[in-house]
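Thread amino acids onto this structure.
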């Protein structure tokens, strides 16, 4: 299948533009930093939540498998449908804002689980994971809409490289940060994590507008496939 894909040559760099233009693009760098921090949400269900369930709640341990299935099945069934609604960078900024607020709701619900009786605790955990996954369904297409939409057509490679560095940096911070916050501080830590995501989400539309103001007006180019 890969061999049948046409090979497209690179687009020419505009005259006078530096080779590594992404390094001077402060709005895009700001977006990459915010997106990397928002990317901590991918590890929230994998790292602190199982420890939280085992150490601080009456939720049966087998529930950990169930919540992973909830997250996976929801992403498989709904990610493409949700992602197709966001095509422009402006739509991506709005999606980031909504994702941050949804993560706040999910994290706050997880903070309420300790002290709940067995099945009530199971229900709240599963519902909270479902809410968190809805936020993930919004965050993922926001990353693509902004990451590709704000990058010049001729420099997609270097822009996607910086975007990946931001995400990877957040994932590197995730174990120490999330466990210290959610397990070390307990219920308050989950609420703080939700507030953290909400603040990032609320800041995203402003960063998006800043980035859009600095984009040059470029006529779209469609390179011909190389022979």
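Threaded sequence (227 positions):
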């Amino acid at each position: 299948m890969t061999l049948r894909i046409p090979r497209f040559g690179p687009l020419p760099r505009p005259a006078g533009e530096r080779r590594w233009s992404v390094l001077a693009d402060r709005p895009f760098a700001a977006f990459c930093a915010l997106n990397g921090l928002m990317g901590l949400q991918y590890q929230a269900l994998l790292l602190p939540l199982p420890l939280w369930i085992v150490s601080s709640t009456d939720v049966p341990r087998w529930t950990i498998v169930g919540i992973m299935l909830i997250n996976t099945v929801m992403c498989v069934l709904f990610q493409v449908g949700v992602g197709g609604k966001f095509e422009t960078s402006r739509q991506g900024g709005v999606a980031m804002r909504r994702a941050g607020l949804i993560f706040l709701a999910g994290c706050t619900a997880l903070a309420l689980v300790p002290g709940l009786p067995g099945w009530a605790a199971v229900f709240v955990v599963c519902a909270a994971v479902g809410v968190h996954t809805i936020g993930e369904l919004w965050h993922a297409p926001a990353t693509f809409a902004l990451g590709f939409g704000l990058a010049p057509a001729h420099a997609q490679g270097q822009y996607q490289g910086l975007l990946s560095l931001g995400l990877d940096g957040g994932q590197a911070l995730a174990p120490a940060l999330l466990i210290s916050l959610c397990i070390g501080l307990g219920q308050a830590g989950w609420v703080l994590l939700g507030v953290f995501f909400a603040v990032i989400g609320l800041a995203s539309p402003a960063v998006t507008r800043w980035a859009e103001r600095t984009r040059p007006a470029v006529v779209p180019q469609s390179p011909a496939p190389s022979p």
